[in-house]
Automatic annotation (TrEMBL):
It catalyses: coproporphyrinogen III(in) + ATP + H2O = coproporphyrinogen III(out) + ADP + phosphate + H(+); uroporphyrin I(in) + ATP + H2O = uroporphyrin I(out) + ADP + phosphate + H(+); pheophorbide a(in) + ATP + H2O = pheophorbide a(out) + ADP + phosphate + H(+); protoporphyrin IX(in) + ATP + H2O = protoporphyrin IX(out) + ADP + phosphate + H(+). It is found in: Cell membrane; Early endosome membrane; Endoplasmic reticulum membrane; Endosome membrane. The lineage of its organism: Eukaryota, Metazoa, Chordata, Craniata, Vertebrata. Residues 295-528 form the ABC transmembrane type-1 domain. The keyword Secreted applies. Keywords: ATP-binding, Cell membrane, Disulfide bond, Endoplasmic reticulum, Endosome, Golgi apparatus, Lysosome, Membrane, Mitochondrion, Mitochondrion outer membrane, Nucleotide-binding, Secreted, Translocase, Transmembrane, Transmembrane helix, Transport. This is ATP-binding cassette sub-family B member 6. InterPro entries: AAA+_ATPase, ABC1_TM_dom, ABC1_TM_sf, ABC_transporter-like_ATP-bd, ABC_transporter-like_CS, ABCB6_N, P-loop_NTPase, Type_1_exporter. The gene is abcb6a. One of its GO terms (molecular function) is heme binding. Gene3D superfamilies: ABC transporter type 1, transmembrane domain, P-loop containing nucleotide triphosphate hydrolases.
Length: 831
């Protein structure tokens, strides 16, 4: 180099001179940094490659995730390998006709070798894995390389005041140098933080995936390819969550609320501007108090105006979710846990309120305050203070993110056990009769207490991890404040700063660390909100099993002809409930479905009402496929009296009026008279205003059934479905109800599911369902004459009836003569 007209360092500089003109010499820096990095590559690379190549195994492609962030890692590594020669070539062009300094050439060569090794190791870790490895993420060698590379670029801040560096940007050469450094800084920092996440590697330990996959195969299950034992990050699918939240923040269609949102954002900007001047005017106490009072007034006004927007968000979320739940299929509602669903809705709604407030009015302003404060530190004081602030901020945010992500699993498990405890409580209270029947009060209390204990254990872990996070944050903030105060005191003693500057530093450092301290809290609250919203998002993700066709129209009701054409259906795959069911109900006819329990009778009713869609065949009303019409129009023409009637926790009048919300009180009473319950209602102290209790438990089974019949009569549908409508009634009431239903069903198409055969003797057609198929069909007399299934069922019920009648007669004969009541009329008992 000397013979070529150049030297290793610049003219007048040697490698022995490390600190010159207030900074590290570029010659020393660009020699030390690539040398350390390449040394790491040589020392750790050999052992690492041996471990992966000789002692490892190829990773199965199905376990390797596809990730755009991994592609970004490769691109940045390649660019960093190329920027070294590019920088050296540019320096050589600037030094022409002289040869470039030796350290420039050395840096270009060593940098290319080091980053090429890092890229090769990155590819190696994606393709192979050491045998017996039960950890996830990148190796320590690669993480250390990225960390040292990023730390080396941060060392450039030490030379902030040195004229040998580019910070002043006074010439085009310094500007280009700065752009090279900025690229290296951002790229190495991005690689380091991406390396902590390891986007190109499995999210779980690879050997655990292999073992679980083999175990699932042995048990005949599906391989656990995409599953994650460890809970995912709360920031997963962040973009999708934000897109779901955005419509709730902007009050569409409400001009007043939209103006309030814009006004709140304007006040937020004014509040930030006021906060900027607080430290600057600190020396003037009067001005300070005025500024602080103005800031508090603006903040309070903004919070007050935001209340209406927050209420809008809460209302829209709850209403949309409530509507979505009502549109879900019967299958989902039969398997839901009411307490868990309600708890998820409550927690999810409150989390949305807090999430929007913290993001808009806390996170963005805090970031702005931090950036402004750092710029002011560097410009008013010097680079050392900016470096201290930057290092503390980076450590603070990094450790906050890492620890918070680590403790996410405790919060998520705590929510799960909280839902479980509430679900157990609601389930036990809803079934309190069963609890008392079996004297199981102590058992239920014990189950509830056990669920609470599990919840409290996880709650303790959550709070303990929070305490650890707070202590870590306080240690970082305290260390930064101590270092800055000592440095400021040193400059005061040297005469470079005045005492007033020390006071100004203290004010500004508090101005910086106060939002920074809250930033950790905001991050925890936002992450917790995302966790709390997960269950609610799962409810939104529940698909509607029965959907209206895109081009569905309204049902054009004409006569009420019902056709089942080769209908097949199953609740679970591989177990058919209905197989090739075909029958026709003519307008105005009554068709009865009979058969053993589980034969598929009630399923036919549910399919006609479109609680489920058929999986084979077709159901038509007046020639129209019911899957091609809107559900609302179909159900408007159908009235159902179910076997198990559940009433709302309201009075009797409103429960009957539910059949037609617009009905008058007189129409409600007429429906009750038709259902033979009017006189019974009037016998209650409060009459039609009598509260029926939760699920109607204050009424007897027969009274609930008659209220349901009155509700259907009030609806006045053209098609009536009776699912064991009189199963809970006594003999006399049953006869009265049958007479009432006979009047109601005149000229209406009716399908009756019956167990008591005596109630469907007059049906126009009786279908005997067996194992999901229609085994027999015909009128009562025809089926008796065949001597088949229907005839056997009829004989068994007659024999049971005769046995019950004989038992009643024998019981009366054994009583004293004066206690014998008049002989009752013969009835039929349901079995």
């Amino acid at each position: 180099l000397v013979r070529s007209g150049s030297s290793y360092c610049e003219e007048g500089i040697s490698m022995q001179q490390v600190w010159v003109e207030g900074g590290v010499t570029p010659c020393f820096f660009f020699t030390l940094a690539p040398s350390v990095l390449l040394s790491l590559a040589c020392l750790l690379g050999a052992m690492h490659c041996v471990r992966y190549v000789r002692l490892g195994t190829d990773m199965e492609p199905k376990f390797v995730p596809r990730s755009c962030l991994y592609a970004l890692q490769l691109v940045l590594t390649a660019l960093l390998a190329l920027q070294g020669p590019a920088w050296a070539g540019w320096r050589a062009a600037q030094a022409s006709p002289m040869a470039p300094a030796g350290y420039v050439v050395l840096y270009g060569c060593l940098t290319t070798l080091g980053w090429a090794w890092a890229g090769a190791l990155l590819r190696l870790e994606r393709c192979r894995v050491p045998t017996g490895n039960r950890t996830r993420g990148h190796s320590a060698a690669l993480l250390l390389y990225w960390a040292v590379a990023f730390a080396a670029e941060n060392l450039a801040f030490v030379s902030w005041s040195s004229p040998q560096w580019w910070w002043r940007l006074e010439s085009s050469q310094q500007q280009v140098e700065f752009m090279f450094w900025l690229f290296r800084y951002l790229s190495s920092g991005t690689l380091f933080f991406l390396g902590l996440k390891a986007p190109g590697l499995p999210r779980r330990p690879y050997m655990l995936l292999i073992n679980e996959d083999e175990r699932d195969m042995e048990h005949g299950g599906q391989p656990l390819l995409g599953a994650e034992a460890s809970p995912p990050s709360a920031w997963r699918d962040f973009g999708r969550k934000v897109r779901l939240l955005a419509p709730y923040m902007w009050p569409t269609g409400n001009m007043l609320l939209q103006l309030l949102v814009l006004l709140c954002l304007g006040l937020l900007g004014a509040e930030r501007a006021v906060n900027v001047f607080v430290p600057i005017y600190y020396k003037n106490i009067g001005e300070l108090q005025c500024v602080r009072s103005s800031s508090g007034f603006i903040s309070n006004a903004r919070s007050f105006l935001w209340i209406r927007v927050q209420q809008y968000t809460s209302r829209v979320v709850q209403v949309r979710l409530f509507a979505h739940l009502h549109w879900l299929s019967l299958r989902w509602h039969l398997s839901r846990r009411t307490g868990e669903v309600l708890r998820s809705i409550d927690r999810g709604t409150s989390s949305i309120d807090s999430l929007l407030s913290y993001i808009v009015f806390s996170i963005f302003p805090t970031i702005a305050d931090i950036i402004i404060a750092i710029i002011y530190f560097i410009s008013y004081f010097n680079a050392w203070f900016g470096l201290i602030v930057f290092i503390c901020m980076a450590l603070y945010l990094t450790l906050t993110v890492i620890i918070t992500e680590w403790r996410t699993k405790y919060r998520r498990d705590m929510n799960t056990h909280d839902n479980n405890a509430k679900a157990k409580a609601v389930d036990s209270l809803l079934n309190f009769e069963t609890v008392k029947y079996y004297n199981a009060e102590s058992y239920e209390v014990g189950r509830f207490e056990e669920a609470i204990l599990k919840y409290q254990l996880l709650e303790w872990k959550t709070n303990a991890s929070l305490a650890l996070l707070n202590q870590t944050q306080n240690a970082i903030i305290g260390s930064g404040l101590l270092a800055g105060s000592l440095l400021c005191a040193y400059f005061v003693t040297e005469g470079k700063f005045e005492v007033g500057d020390y006071v100004l530093f203290g004010t500004y450092i508090i101005q910086l660390y106060t939002p920074l301290n809250w930033f950790g809290t905001y991050y925890r609250v936002i992450q917790r909100s995302f966790i709390d919203m997960e269950n609610m998002f799962k409810l939104f993700d529940e698909e509607e099993e029965v959907k209206d066709d895109v081009n569905a129209g309204s049902l054009l009701y004409k006569l009420g002809r019902i056709e089942f054409d080769n209908v097949s259906f199953s609740y679970t795959e591989g177990k058919e409930i209905l197989r090739g069911v075909s029958f026709t109900v003519l307008p105005g006819q009554t068709v009865a479905l009979v058969g053993q329990s589980g034969s598929g009778k009630s399923t036919i009713i549910r399919l006609l009402f479109r609680f489920y869609d058929v999986q084979g065949g077709c159901i038509r009303i007046d020639g129209q496929d019911i899957t091609k019409v809107k559900q609302a129009s179909l159900r408007a023409h159908i009235g159902v009296v179910p076997q198990d009637t559940v009433l709302f926790n309201d009075n009797i009048r409103e429960n009957i009026r539910y059949g037609r919300i617009s009905a008058t009180d007189q129409e409600v009473e007429e429906a009750a008279i038709a259902a033979d319950i009017h006189d019974r209602i009037l016998s209650f102290p409060e009459g039609y205003d009598t509260q029926v209790g939760e699920r109607g438990l204050k009424l007897s089974g027969g009274e609930k059934q008659r209220v349901a019949i009155a509700r259907t009569i009030l609806k006045a549908p053209e098609i009536i479905l009776l699912d064991e409508a009189t199963s809970a009634l006594d003999t006399q009431t049953e006869r009265n109800i049958q007479a009432s239903l006979a009047k109601v069903c005149v000229n209406r198409t009716t399908i009756v599911v019956a167990h008591r055969l005596s109630t469907i003797i007059g049906a126009d057609q009786i279908l005997v369902v067996r194992d999901g198929q229609i085994a027999e069909r015909g009128r009562h007399e025809e089926l008796l004459a065949k001597g088949g299934l229907y005839s056997d069922m009829w004989l068994k019920q007659q024999q049971a009836q005769d046995s019950d009648s004989a038992s009643d007669t024998e019981a009366k004969d054994t009583r004293p003569e004066k206690l014998q009541p008049p002989a009752p009329s013969v009835g039929h008992r349901s079995h």
